[in-house]
Write a structure and sequence with these properties.
The chain has about 230 residues and is α+β, with helices and mostly antiparallel strands. It contains six helices and eight strands. About 25% of the residues lie in helices and about 20% in strands. The strands form two sheets. A six-stranded mixed beta sheet has the order 2-1-8-7-6-5. Strands 3-4 form a two-stranded antiparallel ribbon.
């Protein structure tokens, strides 16, 4: 009986050894000798819209008021007068009324009036015209345009006048200013010097008034009025 038991024990031990049921030793995971390389894909560039492909939105433009328009045109005319540019001046002249020259504040029907096509050659014109009568003496103002210009148009540098007014008289003298009645609906820009020599107490003031009349939504030059102290 004992022999049989020993035989069974030996048989079981042999079977266990053949099946290798003992716990295997733990084998560590090998560490690579080189660091792994990380690979990144390049991002796809963002496609920006071309500036020229964007719709163009025009800036908002506020139309000029009639007063602003006339003041700008008056400044242009004054520069043309200063430069004696008669060809350009003709482009501003009223197409129906022409351009009237008044030596003093009171505008008269007898004042000289020239159409635009006559304005261009006035500075070189040797014709002596009667422009009115001198204040005080009453003698006729008989001059060429060039001489009239130096006495009754641009006798001082009106482009640098210290005061400017629209539809308001600055220079006050004894002459009646009838320009608004003579030119109904006109806009009149005045360039004014209050005086030059203190000893005269302002009696040597000068004014130049540019008269604009509207025709087909365009403000044309219709009159040039010179003004100064009168007796």
């Amino acid at each position: 009986m004992v022999t049989k038991f020993i035989l069974i024990f030996v048989l079981l031990a042999t079977m266990l050894t053949g099946c290798n049921l003992t716990s295997p030793a733990l084998i560590p995971t090998p560490i690579p000798t080189e660091a792994p390389t990380l690979v990144f894909n390049q991002p796809t560039p963002v496609q920006l819209a071309s500036p020229t492909s964007a719709p163009t939105i025009p800036p908002s433009v506020t139309p000029l008021s009639p007063a602003q328009t006339v003041l700008e045109r008056a400044a242009e005319v004054l520069g043309v007068l200063k430069d004696k540019d008669m060809v350009t001046l003709a482009q501003y002249v009223h197409p129906q009324m022409g351009l009237r020259f008044s030596p003093y504040a009171y505008v008269k029907d007898t004042d000289q009036v020239f159409p635009a096509d006559k304005i261009t050659g006035l500075m070189a014109d040797s014709t002596i015209y009667k422009w009115g009568n001198y204040d005080g003496s009453g003698e006729p103002i008989d001059l060429t345009y060039a001489d009239y210009y130096s006495k009754f148009v641009y006798d001082v540098d009106f482009a640098n006048a210290p005061q400017i007014a629209l539809n308001h008289r600055l220079g006050e003298g004894n002459s009646i200013d009838n320009s608004q009645e003579f030119y109904p609906g006109a806009m009149i820009v005045e360039y004014y010097f209050p005086g030059f020599d203190p000893q005269y107490g302002g009696m040597d003031w000068r004014s130049l008034r540019l008269v604009f009349m509207e025709e087909n939504n365009i403000w044309y030059l219709a009159g040039i009025i010179h003004d100064q102290w009168t007796i």
